[in-house]
Design brief:
By secondary structure, the protein is an alpha/beta fold. The protein has 22 helices and 7 strands. Helix 6 runs antiparallel to helix 7. The protein starts with a helix and ends with a strand.
């Protein structure tokens, strides 16, 4: 068994021992401070905003994938451990670095939760609710060390009600976890000033983040920038930092080999790997605007374009003139912007830019806005500025809870279930959406994937012509009297719309139901 594989149980056991030990010690330690009623109310507000509309949006395919991946990976790991501990750890290390999963530790953990709580929409998303709520309290506890009391409270308000954080605090994905893990690592770093063992705990939190999402590595420079904020580290603390960094590097080696292989290649020298990824190409400036929109408004695109300007202006004011030390402003600025700069650099060759990958930078954005807000002269000016920041956030929160945004396979499955009879065919225009449909349509049925017609030759010619598609469609529906077409994101699979055109030409449309990003059509064939 390799050295880095054997370190998985060692680091996990040691890290959890330190982490859990500190939590128990903190709970048992007597405190003379009275609970901050305002903070308690804020934490309750954060919880209410996330849990109150937790099932307003149906699951989308990435959330169902998280459930599927967690189940499949857990079964593989359990089977390997049945053959022995060494085989189990080696299999776990291999699965944690399997290409295409972006670091599947979250998926494995989610499935263990599902085994206890069930796989309802509410149960799948509830861990993100807790993580998002804990982030508010943890963020306030850390920011109040460096920011004025009012700015720290305002930062906590933003963490509680920012639509982007609420949205991903309601999703069965790892993004709420990533924010929490980064703040937990920062908290352990703060504890390391008194006890160098805190660096081991920080290494654990960072390791969990790295194996929960491959691009969490973008935040390692930000973590080091936070260490730079404080002066006067002792040699003992610096030695602990170096030891924890070495252990983190060794434990990350399996993933590091994959990460490097995704962006660099050896071809007579070290060269970047370029090519298409399925994501659109985004310029660095546009990417910064996308991140600013997420921080200001969330995922809803219906607010006027000026919505990102008040928050962005407050952040710029905080960077340039905030009433905190230049070290604090510099550290927060590096935390806020260095992940964006690194992801933009990677995306120059291979498009990878998605703003949710940078979600762990948002606490720094809000802290900079808060210290910028304090620089605004006059009480009326500060009230008006805060209103301009909160208006887009409030509208974003309302839209995310009340407006259909995610593809609505919940309603599509309900419609099909109300009229489906054995022997009828359910045809998926994009085959991959069958997994989401199956989550909601929990009864036996006969299904098939429609032909994928978008593949082309290097010269740009379609591999499947209209005649070939017609032949395949005829074979798929042979002997069927009724076909249900589940139609979603057709441009990804069939931009010429050949499948639906064939059904319209050879059958009779007897029903059509349109939902958010999903359409159900029922055809009767002769």
């Amino acid at each position: 068994m390799s050295v880095e594989v054997s370190l998985f149980p060692f680091l996990a056991g040691m890290g959890f021992s330190f982490g859990l030990g500190r939590m128990v010690q903190a709970l048992l330690r007597p405190s003379r401070r009275h609970p901050d009623a305002r903070l308690l109310l804020l934490v309750l507000l954060a919880f209410a905003l996330r849990v109150g509309s937790l099932t307003a949006q149906p699951l989308w395919r990435d959330e169902v994938d998280a459930l599927r991946f967690g189940r499949d990976l857990s079964m593989e790991i359990a089977g390997a451990f049945q053959r022995g501990d060494e085989a189990g750890w080696e299999r776990l290390a291999a699965l944690l670095t399997r290409p295409g999963f972006n670091g599947p530790l979250y998926f494995i953990g989610l499935f263990q939760w599902v085994r206890l709580a069930g796989d309802s929409e509410f149960a799948l998303r509830f861990p993100s609710v807790w993580l998002g709520t804990l982030t508010v309290a943890l963020g306030f506890a850390l920011f109040r060390r460096y920011l004025p009391a009012t700015a720290a409270r305002l930062t906590a308000w933003f963490l509680a009600m920012a639509p982007f954080l609420v949205w991903y605090g309601q999703e069965a994905k790892m993004y709420a976890l990533l924010v929490f893990l980064f703040l937990a690592a920062w908290g352990a770093q703060e504890a390391a000033r008194r006890d160098p063992r805190g660096w081991i705990e920080a290494a654990l939190w960072l390791l969990l983040g790295l194996y929960s999402h491959i691009l969490f590595a973008l935040f390692l420079p930000a973590f080091l920038a936070l260490a730079w904020i404080r002066k006067g580290w002792s040699w003992k603390a610096l030695a602990g930092m170096a030891a924890a960094g070495l252990l983190l590097l060794i434990a990350d080696l399996p993933l590091l080999r994959w990460q490097i292989g995704q962006v660099l290649q050896w071809n007579g020298g070290i060269r970047p790997i370029c090519g298409e990824t399925g994501f659109p190409r985004v310029t660095p400036w546009d990417g910064l605007g996308m991140l600013a929109w997420g921080a200001a408004v969330g995922v809803w695109g219906g607010f006027p374009d000026w919505g990102l300007l008040p928050l962005s202006a407050g952040m710029a004011l905080g960077i340039l003139a905030g009433r905190v030390s230049w070290r604090v402003r510099g550290g927060l600025t590096l935390w806020a912007l260095s992940p964006w700069a690194l992801l933009s650099l990677l995306s120059l060759c291979r498009p990878l830019f998605v703003e949710r990958y940078l979600i762990a930078a948002l606490p720094a954005w809000f802290a900079l806005v808060a210290i910028g807000w304090e620089r605004i002269p006059g009480r009326i000016g500060r009230v008006m500025a805060l209103a301009l920041v909160l208006a887009p956030m409030t509208m974003g929160l309302w839209a995310q809870a009340a407006t259909p945004i995610k593809s609505d396979f919940r309603s599509a499955a309900r419609i099909v279930a109300s009229g489906y009879h054995p022997g009828e065919l359910i045809l998926f225009h994009i085959g991959y959406i069958q997994h989401v449909f199956d989550y909601y349509f929990r009864q036996p049925y006969e299904g098939a994937w429609a032909p994928a017609t978008n593949f082309r030759t290097p010269e740009g010619t379609y591999l499947l012509g209209e005649a070939e598609v017609a032949t395949r469609m005829a074979a798929l529906v042979q002997g069927r009297r009724v076909v249900w077409l589940i139609y979603s994101e057709a441009s990804m699979w069939d931009d010429r719309d050949l499948v639906r055109r064939w059904l319209e030409a050879h059958g009779r449309l007897t029903g059509r139901w349109v939902f958010q990003l999903v359409e159900v059509q029922r055809y009767e064939l002769p």
